[in-house]
Amino acid sequence: MGMEASGSAIVFLLLLFIHVAHSFYLPGVAPQDFEKGIIIQMWCLLLDAVLQGDELKVKVNKLTSIKTQLPYSYYSLPFCQPKKIVDSTENLGEVLRGDRIENAPYSFKMREAQMCNVLCRITLDAKTAKAFKEKIDDEYRVNMILDNLPLVVPIERGDPGSPAVVYQLGYHVGLKGQYEGSKEQKFFMHNHLAFTVRYHRDVQTDSARIVGFEVKPYSIKHEYDGKWSEKTRLTTCDPHTKRLVVSSSTPQEVEPKKEIIFTYDVDFQAMKWASRWDAYLLMNDNQIHWFSIVNSLMIVLFLSGMVAMIMLRTLYRDISRYNELETQEEAQEETGWKLVHGDVFRIPTNSDLLCVYVGTGVQCLGMVFVTMIFAMLGFLSPSNRGGLMTAMLLLWVFMGLFAGYASSRLYKMFKGTEWKKIAFRTAFLFPAVVSSIFFVLNALIWGQKSSGAVPFGTMFALIFLWFGISVPLVFVGAYLGFKKPAVDDPVKTNKIPRQIPEQAWYMNPVFSILIGGILPFGAVFIELFFILTSIWLNQFYYIFGFLFLVFVILIVTCAEITVVLCYFQLCSEDYLWWWRSYLTSGSSALYLFLYATFYFFTKLQITKLVSAMLYFGYMLIASYAFFVLTGTIGFYACLWFTRLIYSSVKID
């Protein structure tokens, strides 16, 4: 009976867990329920529902432009303002992205359509007109948020085989154009917004959830009779006469002393709800994306399989032949990798620096791996703004433990004794280089008065994460690693270094290192295109499952190409493999930066010097991180390979 009761309890708990998991949302990103009529008190408490008639909280976010890459606060332009501007609480990632989320003057009521609501009336002076013109010329977009959903502009497409409607984040502040018969360039303001709030209604409870937030912007020169007052009716937009704004036939020009009246409509449309984010994440031609990635992966997998098969057969033959040699004379006549057994584990030059870079690479590898796991589980979806960057920063900090451990273990293998020195270098070298570039870029952003500049409070938080958490963890890891017994070499090292024979031209270090980086880069360059597009063209990136698969292929490719080139190097009796193994796979970072340069000149429309410096500065940081990541993978693969083959042959 006791067993049956406990079994029933377990089944009940599993069913309860399944029910809870089915309705799981991350804190702060769950959609709210909005109801029509009276809401039961218990339902309200459970679902955080809001009565119909309560205001839907529309929030404004930063102004963004793919031409300048410099975000600005919404209220940096003289838009209509609420009585009191209230900043929303933002996480670390949002602040670093330049998000500035504030309340908006728009008043929405759930499932209550509104037409021609007047927001405010302003008169431009020379300064405000110039500010609007600059933002329109740089193609800035206004971003808004409703119930954690970003505002999008639907754009109809007539291309066969592609989605009928695609969505662009945010609407343009205005547009440029000419009057008919004139060649003079004019600036026009989008001063009328036709909002559409899409919702899904529950038939049983009559509650509703917001599943879409769209807008169609118009530029219209509003007119009215008599003097302006709060009760003035517009003749260009009046629901009483059924005159609505449906086009920009009489646009609102941006010039000093011009009067601009801001208005908006709100419409509510019911729709079936598959996922709140379906429309947002189907913005591109996914067939091209998927087929390109699959094609790339298949090619890389085929090449990797061929390389692995050749290596296994060749090595097996070498080891069998070496072990069958009966006399020392026969052994002396042999050539190949066995002859350098007395030098292959000789401590390399600048061994301390190699230890530091290997430890840093382990830190990067751990951060990327865990971040991708969380992203695949849905914790870092686009609905969780800033979550990806926050997670990466925190994981980088806590992975300092493994960085210190890896660097001190290698340091002890190189017969090092001052573990504190190596821990200090590991804790400061990579972060110091990245921080230096970051501070310079932040100063440039600050000089442009952009909201993308990191505030002093956030800067202090970053410094605390580095010095207060990361550095101590590196020292703890280094201490634990140094306490472990040193790794013994499988063969003894001769006291006198062996002379390296003259090498063939294709075994030149520079040539072989540059060749070695091509295959790892080939594994990721198609996915890299989509990542760069999401970052610099303000689009969502969400296919983390495929990205993880590409990452695994990258690891395999880095390991195999480094092992192959290391084998050829040892066969030509060149035993200086330590640094070369790191640089061989690490050279893929050079191709990454070259591709980023190609992408800048072919895909982006950046013209300002500061914006170009920001792009290349951030891509330099990304390439540097990619270098230590791929270099460490290649190094450990080569270390494992050399230890394996030299422990497999008989050495007299």
From TrEMBL:
Location in the cell: Endosome membrane; Golgi apparatus membrane
Keywords from the named record: Endosome, Golgi apparatus, Membrane, Signal, Transmembrane, Transmembrane helix
Signal sequence annotation: 1-23
Membrane topology classification: Multi-pass membrane protein
Residues annotated as transmembrane: 290-312, 354-380, 386-406, 427-447, 459-482, 503-536, 542-570, 582-601, 613-641
Cross-referenced InterPro entries: EMP70, MFS_trans_sf
Protein name as catalogued: Transmembrane 9 superfamily member
Native organism: Brassica campestris (Field mustard)
